[in-house]
Amino acid sequence: MATSTRSEVTARRGTALARRAVRLLLDRGLMSPADVHRYGMSARDVSESNGVVLVELGNGRGFAVKDTGAPRDGGQGDPAREVALYRAAGGVPGATRVLPRLELYDEDAELLVLEGVISARRLDRLAAPHDPLDPRLAAAFGRTLGVWHRVAAGLPPLRPAHPWLFDIDGPDRLPVLDNDEKLRSLTADILGDPAHLAAKAAVEAAWTPDTAVHGDVRFGNVLIRSSGEALLIDWESAGAGDSRWDVAAGLQEYLSAGGVLRPGGGSDTVAAFLDGYAAGRGRPVEWDRLAEFTACRLLVRALQLTTWLPAPDVEVERHRALAREVVAVGAAL
Which residues form the Aminoglycoside phosphotransferase domain (predicted)? Predict the structure, then answer.
């Protein structure tokens, strides 16, 4: 009997999800057979870590449909957090400016339907010619994150956001950190590095929930509309937390992509991101321990790269070195 390749299995799953998505949209009246006949329709699998299908009508209206029932590996997020976030944000003025609109959540079908931002492009696919990120896009990204943190402070209570990095030295650490040989080795190396432990301890001591954080900010979770405005997507790590965790994630993403922080001052891109954030938040950036927060985000990425890349050693060591450096040149932040 012939066996299926991984890509073939993934393609079948995407096709099955597309069928479920279209059926739900028709059953719930978000589009009609007449719409499909008149305008035409496409369903595109855009899944990465989680199953997502983009359904688009020929008139430009679209829906992003996410499978909330598929198993998540440890640390990948919790769909219940995302559903709770969208439901809570729907009634808060200003929140819908910075995240897609919730259309519906069907608990029985285990499908989350969001506004399909058809014309938007992912930030990680919009690199500038001479820098990992154009300063104008960095400013839009920062402004959206700041607006979110400002308006989200008024949300109904959400479950606490608890970075899994905090637990790597205790009994509650993610099982994958013990079960995967490379992750187990890197975890031991991090725990044996005084600089890494000091950064982690500083963040844990400073952690002060002040808003609803995204929890997994990365360039791939930022969409840029054709107008230049930014949206945040993929909220499976959202919860009540410290806004510095998200701000530090933006800085970490820039460094991970090859950006540079200089002693005595950051790049124009970093300045644009932080200035945009301050404008959106309506108050200055919280600098206290931001360098340590960024170091911890770099350690999270180092651990992630261990499973993402076929040969991760060079990138893992680069991220660990950046984690030490960013604390040493904290004035640049």
Answer: 49-293
Tokens at residue 277, please?
């954030």
Q: Please check whether residues 68 and 130 belong to one and the same domain.
A: no
Q: Please, which residues bridge with residue 224 across strands?
A: 121, 230
Nearest to 236 by CA among 294, 179, 183, 159: 159
Task: Give me the CATH number covering residue 73.
Answer: 3.30.200
Give the span between the Cα atoms of 259 and 124, in whole angstroms: 13
pLDDT tens digits, one per residue of 205-216: 999 999 999 999
Kindly tell me the burial class for residue 91, based on how many C-beta atoms sit within 10 Å of its own C-beta (0-12, 13-18, 19 or more): exposed
Place of tokens 């998540």: 72
Asked whether residue 164 falls in the same domain as residue 313, the answer is yes
Q: pTM of the entire structure?
A: 0.93
Distances 284 to 142, 266, 277, 288 between C-alpha atoms, Å:
12, 16, 8, 12
Residue pLDDT, tens place only, 153-205: 989 889 999 999 999 999 999 999 999 999 999 999 999 999 999 999 999 99
Q: Are strands 111-115 and 62-67 parallel, antiparallel or unpaired?
A: antiparallel
**CB contact set of 308 (below 8 Å; sequence gap of 6+):** none
Rounded CA-CA distance 59/57 in Å is: 5
Q: Helix, strand or coil for residue 59?
A: coil
Q: What is the DSSP letter of 160?
A: B
